[in-house]
Protein 1
Amino acid sequence: MSSTALSPNSTASPTAANLSTDLKPPGQAAAAVKPCCVCKDEKTARDECMLFSNSDNPQEDCESAVEKYRNCMRGFGFSVA
């Protein structure tokens, strides 16, 4: 067992100081978001509309849901066609 591992009898315990520590570095790296992590509700609505549309042209039928998703992504700074 390494000396850094905590054993069940260890006296080290989590404190408010180390529980609230931000693990991300400050600055731009912390502010960057991944496209998969934003606009989840809009993406789900868009996908469900496209998959379960009874229209002959689901792309036209779901245009408002697609546009909401695009606007949301643009709001986070992503370039969306």
Note: The CA atoms of residues 39 and 72 lie 6 Å apart.
Protein 2
Amino acid sequence: MEGILSNAVSILVVGMITVLLILWMVVVVGNVLILLTNKFWPLPEGKGTDGSSTVTANKMAAIVAAVQMYTGGKGKITKIEKE
């Protein structure tokens, strides 16, 4: 009985270490991929990347109408940002 329990614990430990190593590798590879992508293929300038893009009058009217309808006239738009 004791041999079965120690075998189960050793398999548990090896499995948990393997999962942690794979997750660590996913994080590292993801961060390296992000760094390489931002370095070699940056976003073009002037496409609203600085958050200063303007909203057209038609879009603003549609947003205001939707907020008023949804909130019953109690909602107020203070800032529009692209996510």
Note: The two ends are 57 Å apart (CA to CA).
